[in-house]
Amino acid sequence: MPEITAALVNELRSLTNLPMMKCKQALVATNGDIQAAIEWLRKQGAATSAKFGGRETPCGATALAIGDGAGVAVLVGCQTDFVGKNEDFRAFVQRLADLALASGAGSVEQLQAQRLGGVPVPEAITGQIQKIGENIRLVAVQRISAPVIAGYNHDGRIAALVGGTGDAGKLKQVALHVASANPPPVALDRSAVDPALIEKEKEIIAATPEVQAKPEAVRPKIIEGKLERFFKEQVLLDQEMLFDAEKGESVGKYAKRVGITIAAYARLQVGS
After folding, report:
1. Under 8 Å between Cβ of 238 and 190
2. Domain interval for residue 222
3. What separation in angstroms does the CA of 114 have from each of 106, 122, 252?
4. Model-level pTM?
5. Which residue from 58, 78, 217, 269 has the least number of CB within 10 angstroms?
């Protein structure tokens, strides 16, 4: 067997961006043949993952899976819009969503612990990287539970789930709203808004010239009034319903009028 020199190992490392020991292992296994070593590494999924692993994934696709009392939204990122719209890539994202639903996974970590097609999910993702030729990444997994769940997936780019009770068609109208709302809702109701977010909003309002120009004694009341607008813009049940609604009707009032309840929602968007 030819000598596996440091220069040879360094050459393979520069081509694959893999650790020195991994490169040496590949060269030993292939009798010092650089091209054979790259192929050996690719068969293990190592070379491709390392080559593309550090690249950002601003594009991607979403998928939904809905079953009895549960719904899952999954977002997988990729490097280019071309891949994000590829049917095979989107089918892979759908398979991950179906797996998340079936396995009970509700987070990236929980889904990565599952097996897809007999192999661990991280290995399945590596296989997709090899096939596609660019980095892909499991970005987000969201799961909700409710007696009735409806979903809407806008062009594989924005996925929304809404769970509650009542007519599924009316709940889907709310899912359409969740997907379309600008700004997207930050919480289902006021009690679910992160207190830190409320304090930050108060801080921003208090610093505006309009508030600073008022006497200090009346500023708290002005801040609370402007905070009310924040809730109406960013809390789901307080937002103005965008579909199937009467003029000026909030999502909460819409739900009451059509006889549904809204207990949970999820929203994922490519690039957000």
Report:
1. yes
2. 190-269
3. 12, 9, 37
4. 0.78
5. 217
